[in-house]
């Protein structure tokens, strides 16, 4: 495992260790051990590190949902938490997912930034503004502040909503575009219609570049539709397209796959969504990536 990391990866993220549940297990306490552990693992191997995340509706600390009023959240809880985490992790962070999955489709707590259609800003975004303005205050000047989400990257309503939320943050939290980024999680499937085309990704990245913002591929995994060598080659081709879109864009500096090998993957080994199989052997997608490095 260590071998795979050392030879293939030069950029890392904690899968769970920097989530709010882990970093503030009881209100007001700071517990950065797990998050710092991944950061120092990366640094010791000459890899850079990104922060994921200061807010997600999932993996929240158990004390939070239900016990905090909206105004307490905006005025106290979010600013204190974001400051604590971002300051505590220091400057050696390429980007922070300040907000994870706020554009979307559920009834999650405290509520996402759009309704299910992905186009309509229905909630009060003041907790988003509070998080971003706090992040701007405490992050180092070259750490990008990201909005990170899934099922984005195409010419679709949810991606349009991401741009709308980004503009809202720029306007109402006073975060300059050259500090902002959009993270495209990219949990996709190797099947027609289940991923974004290279040209759609490139168009979105160019739109962000025109604003002065960055584009990041933050959590790529590509689930196989069937366990066949044809689908493994399809997976490799899609992987190559996503990487090309990033390499050819001057504002795409981060490209991360979620989980290093199939047996460790959150989607399960059967999804075979990563670059390395359950024995740690390189799959066609890994060769496709290696050919571009
Ligand atoms: C997942 C982790 O991989 C799992 O270990 C955990 O149980 C749940 O969260 N989008 C995200 C990530 O932003 O934080 C999620 O990670 C995967 C989906």
UniProtKB/TrEMBL annotation:
- Looking at the keywords, is Signal present? yes
Which part of the complete sequence is present?
1 to 293 of 389
Protein species of origin = Mycena belliarum
Q: What is this protein called?
A: Beta-xylanase
User: Which key words are in the record?
Assistant: Carbohydrate metabolism, Glycosidase, Hydrolase, Polysaccharide degradation, Signal, Xylan degradation
Instruction: State the GO CC annotations.
Output: extracellular region
Q: Name one GO molecular function term.
A: cellulose binding
> Where is the organism placed in the taxonomic lineage, from the top?
Eukaryota, Fungi, Dikarya, Basidiomycota, Agaricomycotina
Among the GO biological process terms of this entry, one is: xylan catabolic process
Q: Known EC number(s)?
A: 3.2.1.8
Its family remark reads: Belongs to the glycosyl hydrolase 10 (cellulase F) family.
> In this protein, which residues make up the domain named GH10?
1-292
The catalytic activity, as recorded, is: Endohydrolysis of (1->4)-beta-D-xylosidic linkages in xylans
């Amino acid at each position: 495992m260590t071998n795979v990391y050392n030879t293939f990866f030069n950029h890392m993220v904690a899968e769970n260790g920097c989530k709010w549940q882990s970093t503030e297990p009881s209100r007001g306490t700071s517990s950065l051990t797990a998050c710092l552990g991944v950061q120092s693992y990366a640094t010791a191997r000459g890899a850079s590190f990104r922060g994921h995340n200061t807010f997600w509706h999932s993996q929240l600390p158990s004390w939070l949902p239900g016990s905090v009023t909206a105004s307490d959240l905006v005025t106290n809880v979010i600013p204190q938490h974001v400051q604590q985490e971002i300051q505590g992790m220091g400057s050696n962070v390429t980007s922070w997912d300040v907000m994870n999955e706020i554009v979307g489709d559920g009834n999650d707590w405290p509520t996402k930034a759009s309704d299910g259609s992905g186009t309509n800003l229905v909630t009060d975004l003041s907790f988003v503004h509070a998080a971003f303005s706090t992040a701007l205050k405490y992050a180092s000047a070259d750490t990008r502040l990201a909005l990170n989400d899934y099922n984005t990257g195409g010419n679709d309503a949810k991606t349009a909503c991401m741009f709308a939320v980004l503009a809202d943050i720029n306007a109402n939290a006073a975060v300059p575009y050259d500090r902002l980024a959009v993270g495209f999680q990219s949990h996709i499937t190797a099947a027609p219609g289940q991923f974004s085309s290279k040209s759609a990704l490139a168009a979105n990245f160019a739109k962000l570049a025109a604003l002065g913002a960055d584009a990041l591929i933050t959590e790529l995994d590509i689930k196989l539709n069937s366990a066949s060598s044809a689908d493994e080659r399809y997976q490799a081709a899609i992987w190559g397209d996503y990487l090309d879109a990033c390499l050819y864009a001057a504002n795409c500096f981060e490209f991360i796959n979620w989980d290093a090998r199939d047996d460790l993957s959150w989607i399960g080994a059967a999804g075979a969504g990563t670059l390395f199989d359950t024995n740690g052997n390189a799959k066609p997608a890994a060769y496709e990536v290696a050919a571009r490095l």
